[in-house]
Design a protein that fits this description.
By secondary structure, the protein is α+β, with helices and mostly antiparallel strands. The protein contains eleven helices and 19 strands. The protein has helices at 2-14, 17-24, 26-59, 154-163, 165-168, 210-213, 241-246, 253-256, 315-318, 410-413, 432-437, and strands at 61-70, 80-83, 88-91, 97-103, 108-113, 120-124, 130-137, 174-186, 189-202, 215-223, 235-237, 262-272, 275-284, 293-300, 306-313, 332-334, 338-354, 357-373, 376-391.
Length: 441
């Protein structure tokens, strides 16, 4: 043993200690290698666990999904599910279904509302997820005796609403982030399914030229790939959320709140988010040769602000569709097709009061076109949905060449549905069939 130690000292001095140990003490090196491997494996495991922990902390979120119905168990489409804490939200689809998420670690205030129903508010406590929950909204019980209805005509109410626009709606620039979706289909075949997150900078109300003057940036877009083609004909729609802002009836106050185009009548009183409103019916005058919209607007009985509108194509306007203005102009450029006069459009527009002013909250558009090709008529359904996700954002100016314009097509600028960016973006489902359709295999 002493001899070996002496030999090892000599070998160390001559630089051959490793070789000597390998030859005379192989078990020492084996133990050293095993020890190093174990330490390395432990470090790898700890590192992986730390990554998983960090990932879970970053991606952890609470989920809330379900169906909204009334007290008669009828579904309520287009109800608004709004997170008062994050200022984000979604709407229920045509089947009353919805889904919304929030980051873990917060207690958020949620408000659910729909036109004609009492709003429901509750606290969404951290760590709780609600799946397939049935939410029941009670119909607004309008007790005329409890509401002081002023003795004024529909024309007088409209006049006051128009005069109050400057006081009730922003008179400065307003920057916001919006979610936008557009869908084009024929029967069960989809030709376009595109979504985008946009930043929009709008100006004071009213402004009939808002589409030309507002600024829009596409932050992120996606589209469903491998959709149907119709005899190699390309269908595109342009403008994106610009068209939705153009349909803001307060920006177009000269068109909707002017007696030159419409006859007004008081259809009763109702509630919008618990606020008593006048329900005013708009009917296009027969001698007005424009393609306009008929329907109802809901005006706050206290400050005469327009809180909502439910409009559709005017029968009179259909006769004059060759005069089609911005409101119902064909949004689909169908190459090789001729768009016929069989056109229907429906719009739902809602505003939300923020501080002391009312701001556009969402615009839902559903249209039906009849197009003709080689003697055969085809019906196409086109829908747009725009909902404001965040208000009062910081607007960073960019070159005009980088802006999204009224001639741009979201479908042409969008990416695919597999982008992780969308993991934390609430899916706003406008129709369940489409929501199921976009799921990847």
């Amino acid at each position: 043993m002493l001899k070996r130690l002496k030999q090892r000292r000599v070998a160390a001095k001559s630089g051959t200690a490793d070789a000597y140990e390998a030859a005379n003490f192989p078990f020492l090196k084996l133990k050293l290698i095993n020890f190093r491997e174990k330490i390395f494996m432990h470090l790898k495991v700890l590192f992986l666990f730390s990554l998983i922990s960090v990932s879970l902390q970053v991606n952890a979120q609470d989920s809330f999904s379900g169906k909204i119905t009334d007290d008669q168990n009828e579904v309520i489409p287009y109800a608004h599910i709004y997170n008062l804490t994050t200022k984000g939200g979604t709407i229920s689809n045509e089947d009353g279904l919805f889904r919304i998420t929030k980051p873990a670690g917060s207690n958020d205030s949620i408000k659910i509302s729909a036109l004609g129903y009492e709003a429901l508010s509750f606290l969404w406590v951290d760590g709780n997820s609600f799946i397939d929950t049935i939410i029941t909204l009670k119909s607004s019980s309008v007790n005329i005796a409890e509401i002081q209805i002023k003795d004024e005509s529909a024309d007088e109410i409209i006049r006051k609403a128009k005069n109050a626009v400057a006081e009730n709606y922003p008179q400065t620039e307003n920057a916001m982030a919006v979610f936008f979706r557009e869908v084009l289909k024929h029967q069960f075949d989809y030709f376009n399914y595109s979504e985008g997150i946009f930043e929009c900078l709008t100006g004071p109300y009213p402004n009939e030229n808002i589409a030309e003057e507002m600024k829009v940036k596409l932050i992120k877009g996606r589209k469903k790939q491998d959709l149907k083609s119709f005899e190699n004909v390309n269908f595109v729609s342009d403008g994106g959320p610009i068209e939705s802002f153009q349909n803001d009836i307060i920006y177009q106050a000269e068109l909707y709140l002017d007696g030159n185009n419409y006859n007004y009548s008081l259809a009763g009183v109702d509630f919008v988010d618990g606020i008593p409103v006048y329900k005013i019916k708009l009917t296009q005058k027969k001698l007005v040769k424009k393609s306009l919209l008929d329907g109802f607007i809901f005006i706050n009985m206290k400050d005469y602000a327009v809180l909502a509108a439910d409009l559709k194509t005017s029968p009179v306007g259909l006769k004059h569709q060759k005069f089609v203005p911005w409101a119902v102009r064909p949004l689909i450029r169908a190459f090789g097709f001729k768009i016929s006069k069989e056109f229907q459009a429906a719009y739902r527009i809602n505003y939300e009061k923020v501080d002391d002013q009312y701001l556009l909250d969402r615009v839902i558009e559903n249209m039906t076109y009849e197009v003709r090709k080689e003697g055969v008529n085809y019906n196409f359904d086109f829908s747009r949905l725009m909902i404001v996700k965040e208000r009062n954002i910081n607007w960073n100016s960019v070159a005009d060449s980088l802006l999204f314009t009224a001639d741009d097509v979201l479908k042409s600028k969008a990416g695919s549905f597999d982008d992780p960016y969308w993991d934390n973006v609430n899916m706003i489902q406008i129709e369940q069939k489409a929501a199921e359709f976009i799921k990847e295999d």
